[in-house]
User: Fold this.
Amino acid sequence: MQSYLDFEKPVADLEAKIVELKSLAAADQAVSIDEEVNRLSARADEALVEIYRKLTPWQKTQVARHPQRPHFSDYVRSLITEWQPLAGDRKYGEDAALQAGFGRFNGIPVAILGQEKGNSTETRLKHNFGMANPEGYRKAVRVMDMADRFSLPVLSFVDTAGAYPGIGAEERGQAEAIARSTEKGLELGVPNLAIVIGEGGSGGAIAIATANRVLMLENSIYSVISPEAGASILFRDAGRAQDMATAQKITAQDLLGFGVIDAIIPEPAGGAHRHHGVIMDATRAAIDTFLKDFDGRSRLETREHRREKFLAIGTSL
Assistant:
C-alpha cells in the first residue's frame, strides 16, 4: 500500500478515486470505467509532477525519510552479486545498523558499506533505525583496510539520521570511532564513492562519506544536524524544523552549488519510493561511470584527488 506524505494529498485523493472505481467495476462488470480511470490517472500524474517540481527543503526532508524509499539492502540486492557481509569489529561486537562486506558490481570485486534502516518494525529495531554504534564504524574501518590491501574500490551508501547517541555508545568511544572511520576513508589508496540515498546526518554520515566522489539522490538531504535538533538548539523550538531546514541548505541542489557534493542522481516525479527500478538503473550508471573514471589511477593520484577535493570545499563561496 502506498504511503502518502502530507503535501501529496491531492494525489492521494485522485488515486483513492481510481481504486474506488476499480472496486466498483470488479463488483459490476457491466460498468465501464476505463475512460474515467485514464482521466484521473493523467490528473494524478500531472499533480505529482507539479508537486515535486517545487518541493521545499522541509518537504525534501520528508521524502528523504519516506518509509518506502529504497534502503541499503535494496541497492545491494539490485546492484551487487556475490554479496558477502562481514560481522563484528574484532574489539567489542557486531552492529547491524552499519552493513559492510564484499561483492561484485558488474563483475568487478568491490567493498560495500552502508547504513540499513529496515522496512518493518522488526527490521527497524534490529538495525537500530540506521543509527550505528562505535563497533559499526570500527567494522567499516576493518573492511576499508581489507579493500585497501587487496586494491578493491569502496562503495558507500549513506542513509542515517546520525550515529547512535546512547550512553553505551559514548562509553565505547563513539566520537573516536567516527574519527577513525573518517580518517580511513581519506587515506585510502583505492577509489571510493559515496552516495547519499536518503538522510546524510552528522558524523554518522561523514564517517563513510569521505570519498573521491560524493553523490546525492535528488530528494536526499545531507547536513551536520537534523532540522529538528538544529531548531531545538538555535530557536529553542523543535517545531521550527521547517525554518531550520531552509536555513541549513541541506538539499542536493544547495550542496552541489557549494561544492560539497560532486553530482546529483535525478529522481522521477514522485520520488525514489515510487520508482525503485528507475533509481537502481540511474545508480548503476553513476557507479559504472565512477569506476571507469578512476580505473588505472595510481594510489598516489587517487589519494591526491581526494585530498584536493576536500581542501577545496568552502574556498569559492
